[in-house]
């Protein structure tokens, strides 16, 4: 029987590619999204992947949303914490709102989504939690004190939880994408973006599919010995 995978932020950008790749690999996929109804409806119409609306920043909404997914598809065995936002600003101009919004989604969202699923994964003795962090959680990025802090936090969460899940057959891993050609990166001012691309040894932005293949790799049943790891896919821009 095919396993159920839930992808947060799964109807756009990297998340959409992850949802599609997991479906192609035989999973029953649910894609969560927070705001863009039009994009979600289009995604479902084009792919047949059901979309579910709630904010990962809201714990109660996560509990209710997960219950809907599980009622429709069955217990979630693969969780991909992909949803993320940017509120870029140099620190001296950064507002508390910009700090907090990024923390709520990019860091607290991992607690809000993983916690309600954790007991079920432990009971069933199987689980895959895959957290989409970022190159900027590894190296830091000027203009992203909030985002870099949250994404670095995601790596600490991954490593701690991997230790707790290991005996229960649950792996917890992180992927650190570099700069991928999504709306998020295209929103960076062109001049800044060009200077970033110049720092990528492969000479181009990554593609969402190049992150999705990392997820499929880590989600597999026979990836059970890989846990607590950070898989980087950044075109050679930064080595840990
Ligand atoms: N290091 C140090 N100083 C820098 C800098 C850097 N990399 N970049 C800019 N500065 C300085 C500038 O020189 C300038 O200094 P002065 O005022 O003394 O001249 C000052 O910071 C302000 O720079 P800007 O004119 O660029 O300021 P701004 O307010 O117009 O824009 C910004 C600031 C919004 C942060 C903009 O620089 C920006 O968008 N930067 C890109 C940040 C980035 O890489 N975001 C990644 C988004 S994609 C993503 O997050 C996905 C992922 O995981 C990779």
UniProtKB/TrEMBL annotation:
By its UniProt entry, which SUPFAM superfamilies does this protein fall under?
Answer: NAD(P)-binding Rossmann-fold domains (SSF51735)
User: Which BP terms from GO are recorded?
Assistant: monocarboxylic acid metabolic process; poly-hydroxybutyrate biosynthetic process
Its keywords, alphabetically, are: Oxidoreductase
Query: Which InterPro entries does the record associate with it?
Result: Acetoacetyl-CoA_reductase, KR_dom, NAD(P)-bd_dom_sf, Sc_DH/Rdtase_CS, SDR, SDR_fam
Q: Which GO terms describe its molecular function?
A: acetoacetyl-CoA reductase activity
Q: Where is the Ketoreductase domain?
A: 3-178
Highest taxon above the source species: Bacteria
- Entry GO CC: cytoplasm
Query: Keyword Cell wall biogenesis/degradation on this protein?
Result: no
Q: Does the keyword Oxidoreductase apply?
A: yes
Q: Which CDD domains match?
A: BKR_SDR_c
- A Pfam family cross-referenced in the UniProt record is adh_short_C2
Query: What family does this belong to?
Result: Belongs to the short-chain dehydrogenases/reductases (SDR) family.
- Protein name stated in the entry: Beta-ketoacyl-ACP reductase
